[in-house]
Amino acid sequence: MTVEFADPQRHRPPTPVTEGDRVAWRDAVVAEVPGFRPLTLDLFRPVAAAGPAPLIIWVHGGAWRFGDNKRESPQLVAGRITERVLAAGFALARVTYRLSGEARFPAQLHDVKAAVRWLRRHAAGLALDPARFGVWGESAGGHLASLIALTGDDPDPVLSGPDRLRGGSDAVRSAVIWYGPSNLSTMGGSHDDPGSPESLLIGGPVPDRPVEAEAASPVTYVSAEAPPILLAHGRDDRVVPATQSEELHERLAELGAPVTLRLVPGADHCFVGADLDPPVTEALDHFRVTLG
Fold first, then answer.
1. Whole-angstrom Cα distance, residue 62 to residue 140?
2. Which of 96, 142, 268, 276 suits 82 as a labelling partner, its CA being 20 to 30 A distant?
3. Cα separation of 217 and 212, whole Å?
């Protein structure tokens, strides 16, 4: 299915609304796909922000099959991520993307890149600093956030999508990746089943589609030029093995890229079984340092 990305002159930011200590732009259209709902984002900016604000782009999880940008995963609600991001002085964009039941990879990557470009294109009117964009994702969203960080401004149309022709940068300056898949071919076990989230993402069983699995794996795109990345993963994750973050960390570290790995003791997927405060605090500290 061909993506018709939003005309920057036709799809401008909606009228902002002040909501307490934040200004909100809700349901901004960033791209359109014929026969499908418009791809949108919600943007929040602290009222008290002085000057153009640094931006964190949040990519939701849900096995590429579920979830949306309107709410946290139930396990993450206690982390108060939106509130803490804004309190730290960052703007926050919560983006949408097509799920695997709607389109195969790389559609999801194209959609998030379209959101990054739209935000940068309209940065002046939104009082955002286009030079200080970071991305933060969890689980399937962590996978996409990794790809955003590692393929910024890549000219390959398979990665960049048709919107690349319209110009604009989709690069980010920093990333936080929470328990995201990094190499579809090494996840093993049930992840190789035809009905697994990974197989549904690429359109067939992972072992039968090595080319597609490699193209969808963040480890494929590691380079010494990667932006600073913080990887955080529960040691006892039974959904996405912690070895996935370890593998991405090892590949990046071997090249001298700025990467940090934090394994959370006793934590399952979504950090269940552990206190959410330390991972959120460390993520915000990472962005304070790397986004200035």
1. 6
2. 268
3. 9
In this structure, is residue 92 part of a structural domain? yes
Residues 212, 106: Cα–Cα separation, whole Å: 9
Is the residue at 278 inside a domain? yes
Q: Is residue 207 part of a domain?
A: no
| pLDDT at residue 8 in the model | 46
3-state secondary structure of 35: coil
Residue entry with tokens 């600093």: 129
- pLDDT tens across 215-237, in order? 999 999 999 999 999 999 999 99
Kind of pairing, strands 259-264 and 174-178? unpaired
Concatenate the DSSP letters of all residues of 77-88 into one string. Answer: GGG-HHHHHHHT
- C-beta neighbour count of 231 within 10 angstroms: 25
CATH number reported for the structural domain that contains residue 244 in this entry:
3.40.50.1820
Any idea what the Cα angle at residue 272 is, between residues 268 and 277, rounded to 5°? 120
Count of domains for the chain: 1
Number of H helices, E strands in the chain: 9, 10
Residue 229: which of 260, 256, 253, 255 has the closest Cα?
260
Token pair of 156 as six digits: 């390959």
Question: Chain centroid to CA 200: how far?
Answer: 19
Question: Would you say residue 189 lies in a domain?
Answer: no
What residues of the chain score a pLDDT lower than 70?
A: 1-10, 163-167
> Residue 248 is part of which domain span?
4-182+217-291
- Going by the DSSP 8-state scheme, the letter that residue 243 receives in this structure is H
